[in-house]
Amino acid sequence: LDDTVKTVEDIERHAHGKGILGTIPAVTDWRNRDTARLVTIEDPTAPISEAYRSVRTSLQFIGLRQPLRTLMVTSPMAAEGKTTTLANLAVTLARSGRRVICIDCDLRRPRLHSFFGLSPTTGFTSVLLGDSPLSASLQNVDVTGGGSLRLLASGPLPPNPAELLGTSRVNELLAAVAADADIVLVDAPPLLPITDAVVLSSRVDGVVLVATAQVTSRRHLGRATQLLDQAGAETVGVVFNGATPESGYGYNYQYRYGGKGSGDGSRRERSDRGAARSAPALPR
Rounded to 5 degrees, what angle do the CA atoms 128, 132, 138 make? Predict the structure, then answer.
C-alpha cells in the first residue's frame, strides 16, 4: 500500500493543521542526489527558483505575527529535501537584502557545506567546545544582492550529538549568531530516526517541515508534527517538495532545469530587488 503524500490535500490532512509555506516543483535533470547544487544560483530564473522565493514571501508574512530570527529546517525522514530547501531559501533571503547565517546542526550526516563549496572542518561543534571563536568559524558565501550569506558548518562530528545539542551552550551560541544576522537557518537531522531535531526544535523561533511528494509517508508526516507539538516547538508550516501539476502545484511552466517559460535574468533581478517592496521584511 502506497502511503506517501501526493497532493496538497494530503499535506493539509496529515500535517495536523500546519499550513503550506509553498510548493517546490519536481525537477529531474538539475539535481543529482550525490551532487549538491543550488538551482537558485545556477538558474535563478527557473520556475523552481521562483517557488523558493514564494516560500521566502510566506515566511516574511508570518514574521509580521511572530519573531522569526532563528528557523530550523527538518523533515520526517532522510532524503526528503530539507538541506536542499534550506540552502536555496538562504540564497533567496540573502538576495532580498537579508543578513543570513546558516548553521549545520546535522551532526550525523552534515551536508550543507557541500552546497556552498566550503569546508566542514571548523564550525558549530568547534565553537561549542571552545576550540574556535565564532567570528573565525563563519564562512562567507558569495551571493549577489544587497544582503549577505554566511555558513557555520558542522565542525568535527561528536560521538554524542543529542547530548551536545541539549546543553545550555547551544542556546548561547544561537543567541550570539542571531545577534549578527537578520535570520538564522538551522539545518537539523530528520525528526523520526533520532532525537536531535526534537531537542533543537524548542530552542528556535520556528520550525519549517519539508515533505516530498511520493517520498514522505503520510504516517511519518503526522508523527513528525505530533513530535514537534509535544516538544513545544512552533511549526510555522510545511514546504511541499517535488510537487507536480497533479499534486496541486500552481505554476504553468515546464518543470525542468532551464526550461521554457522560466523568463530572463532581468525578471529574476527585479523579483529579488522588489522583495522588500512586495512583502514585509523579516525583523532585523
Answer: 90
| Contacts of 255 by beta carbon, 8 Å cutoff, 6+ apart | 25, 26, 27, 47, 48, 244, 249
Confidence at residue 28, expressed as pLDDT on a 0 to 100 scale? 66
Q: Residue 127: which CATH number?
A: 3.40.50.300
The three cell numbers of residue 145 are 544582492
H/E stretch holding 95: helix 82-95
What's the Cα-to-Cα distance from 28 to each of 32, 52, 57, 116, 258, rounded to whole Å? 8, 17, 25, 21, 12
- For residues 113-141, b (16+ Cβ closer than 10 Å) or e, as one string? bbbbebebebbbbbbbeeebebeebbbeb
192 within 8 A of 109, measured Cβ to Cβ: no
> Is residue 266 a part of any domain in this protein?
no
Q: Which amino acid is at 66?
A: Q
Beta strands 70-74 and 183-187 are parallel
* Domain range enclosing 112: 8-257
Q: CA–CA separation, 167 vs 217, rounded Å?
A: 32
The verdict on pTM exceeding 0.90 is: no
Whether 81 has a pLDDT exceeding 90, the answer reads yes
Instruction: Give me Rg for the CA atoms of the chain.
Output: 18
User: Is residue 280 in a domain?
Assistant: no
